[in-house]
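Lab meeting tomorrow. Look over both lines:
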Amino acid sequence: MGGNLPVILIELVLVFGGVLAFAWWQLRSVARDRRETVARRAAQQAAEAIAAAPPAAPPPAATSAQSGTPAAEAPAEPR
């Protein structure tokens, strides 16, 4: 068994190193996916808030300078 000890140690290092590398990779992937999900949910909530907000009030109608009546109802001036 003494002659096989270096091979066994190399094998153990490779196996455990591979497992640790895979675990690190997966944890990074999970963290990235969580960040993306949080950003996506925030964007979706912002879009829903904008869609649910009441529409802005229309701008006031233009008025005739002389009578104060709306411009659409102002009498036409003779030529």
Notes: Residues 11 and 17 are 10 Å apart (CA to CA). The mean pLDDT is 83.
